[in-house]
Amino acid sequence: MEIKLFRKWDIAVIALIAAAALAFAYMSFSKSENPQAVITVDGEVIETIDLSAVREKIVITPGTDPKVVIVAENGEIRFESAECEDKLCVNSGSLEKGGDTAVCLPAKTVITVTGSDVDAVVY
After folding, report:
1. 58-60 sheet: strands from edge to edge
2. pTM: predicted TM-score of the whole model, two decimal places
3. What is the SS3 assignment for 21?
4. Please, are residues 116 and 98 in contact by the beta-carbon 8 Å criterion?
5. CA angle, 54 as apex, 92 and 61 as ends, to 5°?
6. Does the domain spanning 36-114 belong to CATH 2.60.320.10?
7. What is d(CA 82, CA 112) in angstroms, rounded to the nearest whole number?
8. What residue ranges do the domains of the chain occupy?
9. What is the per-residue pLDDT across 29-48, written as a single tens digit (0 to 9) for each?
C-alpha cells in the first residue's frame, strides 16, 4: 500500500492559502497613495493637505470656539490640543491612512484622510 503525502486538492488548497496570505500582507503593509487630509469646519472645507508632501511641521488653528490646534507632520495629522471638556478629538491620535477620521464636535471640526487604502472587502 502506497501512501501519498499530498493529493491534487491538497496542493490547490495550500496554493490558495498562500495567495490569500500574500494579498493580506500586501494590503496590511502598504500605505495610501497620496493621502489627503481634508479639514472641515461647520461643513465647509477650510484646508486640504497632501500628507505625503509634508516635510515640516504645519500648525493649523481654525477660528473655532472652542479653540482647536491641528498639526500635520511626518505624513500624519492630528488634533494637538482642544479647549473642549472631553478632549476626545485629541485622544483619537494621529491619522495617516485613507478612511481615518477625527472629530471635535464642540468646535464642529472634522479631519478626514482620503486615499486608496482598503481596510476590508465587501461582496
Report:
1. 58-60, 68-73, 76-82
2. 0.69
3. helix
4. yes
5. 55
6. yes
7. 17
8. 36-114
9. 655 468 899 999 999 999 99
